[in-house]
Design a protein that fits this description.
The protein is of the alpha/beta class. Helices cover about 30% and strands about 30% of the residues. It has five helices and eight strands; from the N terminus they run H-H-E-E-E-E-E-H-E-E-E-H-H. A hairpin with a 2-residue loop joins strand 2 and strand 3. It starts with a helix and ends in a 7-residue tail after the last helix.
Amino acid sequence: MFKAVFGRHQNVLLKMIRDVFEVEETEPFTIAGLESTPNTKSGKTYRGDITVRLSDKSYVLIEMNYRKDKNAIDRNMIHLTRVHNQILKKSVKDEELKDYRIRGLNLNNFNNETGEAIENYALCNIKTNKVVSLIFSFCNISLIKCRQLVYDINISNLPNAVRWGAILLEEDID
């Protein structure tokens, strides 16, 4: 259902991405594919549900997770690196590397590890806890927690990402 709805209503998907990642890319977003090319590692196939091209240097890979998988971040990291290697050109200068961003968006049908509605991951220094690179980043959205928040508190105080998480669990179009 997820791929079918967003395949037909790409404008809604693109609005969700803008809201969740707070991106203001100047180029129009495009759906690069409803499934990324699969890759097999240790007998398991890794693939993304939807790939969105924000620009020549920026992509969002969306994964809808039905059940909790302890290897989800590792699996996503493999997938993000594979896509990153496909778009990175040999002539890229060091100062341009930061412009090549690959974001992962996990829409989880379960609660996140922290119990928070939204979890954000990036490469960080373990000692200082400071982010050292945003070339690869993940956003985990717990759809269940988002829905609880929307119905338990004043929704006008919630971030758009939480509202989107709740919307994705609704049973009717209204």
